[in-house]
Amino acid sequence: KDPLTIVIWTLVLLAARWVLHQIFTRSWAKRLLGLSPTVKLSPAESLLTEKICKYFWHAVVYLALFVWGLSILSKEAWSPFHTGSLDTVWIDYPHSASEKPVLKAFVMAQVAWYAHGFVESLIVDKFRNDFIVMLVHHVLSAVLLLGSFWGNAHRVAIVVCVEQDLSDILMYISKMFEKAVGFPWTQNNTLRSYLLVQLTVAWWSTRVCVLGTLVFRCFSLLGPTGLFTVGGPSAHYLSIFLIGQLGLLWVMQVFWAVGLLKMTVDQLRKVRPRRVRPC
């Protein structure tokens, strides 16, 4: 039933995206870009309009998923919000299947979101330099989420989703401000710097530090049991696959984090305090 649920969720998301673009987002995106709603767009303007539509859609959906995930974590006894430690995400792994019903709808929605993102990237992101990396990211995230859920690592799945969603919200809001040339005040260097610094702090805090801690604490807590030791007497090969995927996901986040940090530093160099001439 899970694959059918994912397909239905994916189709619903794609349909909702199309309807929203038709009735609101596309005309709103043209306003942000300072384009006339009646004039035919050039290919470059059309692509830029689609990007703005994507940014808005992603910010809205990620905000909804983030709030949904937080509401679940706020009620679970094992949640880091209650224990104050990420170790409870791994302790007693594999976890009880009795915990899964509460999380199932959320995880399936997340998997469908990445499946939707794969299709969307084929339309909007094909000219990006990291286009292939983006496609791999969508596939990797969907496989990791499904494997985690089916392999009773559902605690890991929801915690990783929530920490990833926070920086996604900030990222797409920042991108909208960056492209909104139709509103000159959004092009202020100080505002751009603030948005980039905020995003960089969130990205490094969650996607590098929190996710990195999850990966390394996994080996620290479970490694000695042989669970993740290839060829060991207690080796569990689904677990080996999942932690390998999670580690690869973390490496990708570090790769993007370094690029984001460089972008932020370059932006901050543009915003230098003016020298005050003596009277």
Task: Please summarize what this structure is.
The chain is mainly α and 279 residues long. It has helices at residues 2-32, 43-73, 80-83, 100-124, 131-150, 154-179, 189-222, 237-270.
Please provide a written account of the structure.
- The protein is mainly α and about 280 residues long.
- Helix content is about 75%, strand content about 0%.
- The protein has eight helices and no strands.
- α5 (about 130-150) packs antiparallel against α6 and α5 packs across α8.
- The longest helix has about 35 residues, at about 190-220.
- The radius of gyration is 21 Å and the shape is globular.
- It starts with a helix and ends in a 9-residue tail after the last helix.
- The mean pLDDT is about 90.
The major sheet is characterized as: none
Shape: globular
Quaternary structure of the protein? single chain
Number of strands: 0
- The low-pLDDT segments are none
- What structural class is derived from the secondary structure elements? mainly alpha
So how many helices? Answer: 8
- H-E string: HHHHHHHH
The N- and C-terminal alpha carbons lie at a distance of: 77 Å
Helix content: over 70%
Radius of gyration over alpha carbons? Answer: 21 Å
* Mean pLDDT level: 88
> How large a portion of the residues is in β-strands, by DSSP E?
under 5%
Features:
mainly alpha; 279 residues
Layout of SSEs?
Blueprint: H1 2-32, H2 43-73, H3 80-83, H4 100-124, H5 131-150, H6 154-179, H7 189-222, H8 237-270
